[in-house]
Amino acid sequence: MTANTLTVAVLGAGTMGSGIAVTAARGGHRTIVRDVDDESVRRGLDNATSFLRKSASLGKLTEQQAEAAIANLSGTTELGDLAGADVVVEAVYEDLELKRELFGRLDDVVARDTLLHTNTSTLSVTAIASGSRYPDRVVGTHYCNPAQLMKLVEVAEGRHTSPEATKRSMAFLDSVGKTTVVTKDRPGFILNRFLIPWENNCIRALEAGAGTVESIDKAVVGALRHPMGPFTLLDVVGLDVHKAVAMRLYEQLREPRFAPPPLVDRMIAAGDLGRKTGRGFYTYDSTKSFGA
Amino acid sequence: MTVFSRVAVLGFGTMGGGIAQVVAGSGRDVVVLETERHRLDAGFAAVRRFLDDGVSRGKTTEAERDAVLGRLTGTTDVADLATVDLVIEAVTERMDVKADLLGRVAEVVRDETVLATNTSALSVTDLAARVSGPERVAGLHFFNPAPVMAVVEVVRALQTDASVAADLVSFTEDLGKAPVEVKDRPGFLVNRLLMPYLNDVVREFDDDLASAEDIDVAIRLGLGHRLGPLELLDLIGIDVHTHATESAYEATLDPQYAPPPLLRQMVAAGYLGTKSGRGFRVGTTEEGHSR
């Protein structure tokens, strides 16, 4: 490891948080996972640890590398334990007030030059940064799910982010093997900005009888060579998640193309959320989601 | 029973050549119509290059290549199409040109010969209305490159006879492609979905959301697409996409299809993508600015 060893704190031990923790720990950094209760912290660390062990058994990492990464991981429920962090990556629930409040409390805990990263996918980096007294150190770093496998991170500066903070953030992301793209603090950044209207259009085409679930998926995979058709992808993402993301973009952009079409509401009402419930646009024998 | 054993392809450009190769590859005899001898020569050379490349990469054999080429003939005389069972039109995307040519072909071929158009931008119903025997007209929309892409849209015009559509579905399957039956709506299915997405990307790129390269990298890595949207536009041809989305906009007045101003400017400047050496990614720095 040639890069400096940093102390990285990850707020939130859910799917994204534990994936980011794996990324940081595997990149050689001391990594502290923080969530509000012991049970959540334990589950997040367990998921991270079992992913790293599995990576070793699949030959993606050596036993030594996996054990070193696991040794880099620790957990806490106390914000005060993050005092020595060089980078804090916030990956809590997508709630603006919660994120702002956390960054405000962190101001009293961490050093002045500690970087505050938000993994928000749909909220404004500027709005989240306004929770800190030092918004110059807040940077949007949007990881893709599953964060421990996907190389891409979208980097977005808030209105008050300093170029220095962005530069250090890019260096950190580089040290953990991520490929960064630079985008603006605009709703949905690059990926969701283009993905959400695309998927909504596919749903509307289905509603309009332009094709069936199967024929639209087949046409998109066959003609555009996407890895998954739109309905297969929506089932993986979850209809409830799609709706939440689409609504947040719609509320900010006020363009109807971002609003989830009525079929999404009907499917959610019926409990057909996708793979995780065994039924969405398709039906599934197993509810095990990919990456789990 | 073989569906459509003798096939004519009108036009030996990129699409016509790809389609002729695919149909000949299924064991059928194909006659290709062009306006001039040198265009036929260029078309044959392109098909040969594609097949040679396939041989060198182990995708096909020399014997198969020679068999495919042996089943292709070229002509500049419409009268030579008299005996075909199916005509696939793949000439320039202009209604007057297509209607005029199909009208002349219709006079030569049998009344029951199926007339298919590979248009992606025009209404098949409009075209059928200009040809005698509109019930035998349908769309057969191949994607570029035709020998590679697994899907073909079978487009039913308002006038298309159900048995004609069914035969084209069987024919498509026999070519080893997956048919997707679609109504004659602007963009059919795939382009109806693709065009608003590409327009969206062009608009946001013009509004400085990110560099052209970063947009492509994000889509490739984040969504697993083989090509980012801006490199895809360079390949499609910025003029081709602009024309298609203009047609869809005229037909629907749906603002999603309205071509963003940057597209028209690039066409005006001659920045057409790969084929002109300058587009969103081709011939630019990584930021998408001119070099």
Briefly characterize the structure.
The complex is a heterodimer of chains A (292) and B (291). Chain A is an alpha/beta fold. Helix content of chain A is 45%, strand content 13%.
Quaternary structure state of the chains depicted: heterodimer
Structural class of chain A: alpha/beta
* CATH architecture call of the largest domain in chain B: 3-Layer(aba) Sandwich
The CATH architecture of the largest domain in chain A is 3-Layer(aba) Sandwich
β-strand number of chain A: 8
Largest pleated sheet of chain B: 8 strands, mixed
> How many helix segments of chain B?
11
Largest sheet composition of chain A: 8 strands, mixed
User: What would the CATH topology of the largest domain in chain B be?
Assistant: Rossmann fold
Overall shape of chain B: globular
What report would you give on this structure?
Chain A has 292 residues and is an alpha/beta fold. Chain A folds into two domains: 7-183, NAD(P)-binding Rossmann-like Domain (Rossmann fold, 3-Layer(aba) Sandwich); 192-277, N-(1-d-carboxylethyl)-l-norvaline Dehydrogenase, domain 2, CATH 1.10.1040. Chain A contains eleven helices and eight strands. Chain A is globular, with a radius of gyration of 20 Å. With 291 residues, chain B is of the alpha/beta class. Chain B folds into two domains: 6-183, Rossmann fold (3-Layer(aba) Sandwich); 191-276, N-(1-d-carboxylethyl)-l-norvaline Dehydrogenase, domain 2 (Orthogonal Bundle). Chain B has helices at 14-25, 37-56, 62-70, 95-108, 124-129, 162-174, 190-206, 212-223, 229-236, 238-252, 261-269; strands at residues 6-10, 29-33, 72-75, 86-89, 114-117, 137-142, 151-156, 178-183. In chain B, strands 3-2-1-4-5-6-7-8 form an eight-stranded mixed sheet, sandwiched between helices. The longest helix of chain B has 20 residues, at 37-56. Classes of the chains: A alpha/beta (292), B alpha/beta (291). Chains A and B meet through strand 8, helix 7 and helix 8 of A and strand 8, helix 7 and helix 8 of B.
